[in-house]
Amino acid sequence: MPNLISELTLDGIFDLKGVGKAGNLIEFGSGGGFTLGNVLEKRLIQTDQRVDFVFEWTVKGMFAHAFNPNFRWRIEVFMERYGPLDFDLGANGIATLNYGSGDLVAPDEVSYPGVGAPTSTTVSIPPNTIPEGVYDVVAVLRLLHPAGDDTPCFLAAFAEFGKINFYQEH
After folding, report:
1. What is the pLDDT of residue 14?
2. Which of 97, 154, 159, 164 is deepest in the core (most CB within 10 A)?
3. Cα(145)–Cα(69) distance, integer angstroms
4. What is the largest CA-CA distance in the chain?
């Protein structure tokens, strides 16, 4: 599980912490049939399998509760392919959340994505979306201005998932 990395970390005042996870369905797991697997253990995914990138984060510190509830969070997954033929996930690699207020879980801690949202946010890449190849995978988390123009504001973080090989069974 890669940690989210952010430059805006001021202990006791403002601190963003979180993790990213990657999973897919593994054929014929230990119990037979399909089981949910951790992509980061084997780093191999068949191109006809869906892959999910899951994110959880919190903001701690005395200013954690000061976010405008109209702020939005955007998560984007980027894949850089080794070798020829660039590849872009397009809309499949983006999740935007309208839960800017988060859940106040302590006087100095806010958990995201927030009120009315699940405890994590998932970017799901459908089967047969990613061509065969080895990819370096990075996800970016940005806080967006409440104006609705998707302009990033003062907070961003990223998580590196490393190299993942997408292959096609022939």
Report:
1. 77
2. 159
3. 10
4. 56
What domains are there in the chain, each with its CATH number?
9-167 (2.60.40.10)
Q: Are 15 and 57 in contact (CB under 8 A)?
A: no
How would you classify residue 88: left for phi > 0, otherwise alpha for psi between -120 and 50, otherwise beta? Answer: beta
Position 11: which residue type? D
Give the CA angle between residues 92, 123, 41 to the nearest 5°.
Answer: 115
pTM: 0.78
Inform me whether the pLDDT recorded for 5 exceeds 70: yes
pLDDT tens for each residue of 96-135: 776 666 777 777 777 776 655 556 788 889 999 999 999 9
Strand arrangement of the beta sheet that strand 94-97 belongs to: 44-46, 152-167, 133-144, 72-81, 94-97
Q: Strand 44-46 relative to strand 152-167: parallel, antiparallel, unpaired? A: parallel
The two structure tokens encoding residue 88:
């872009």
What confidence tier does 50 reach under pLDDT thresholds 50, 70, 90?
confident
Rounded Cα gap, residues 100 and 143, in angstroms: 8
**H or E element that contains 17:** strand 14-27
Measured distance CA(65)–CA(28) in Å, rounded: 45
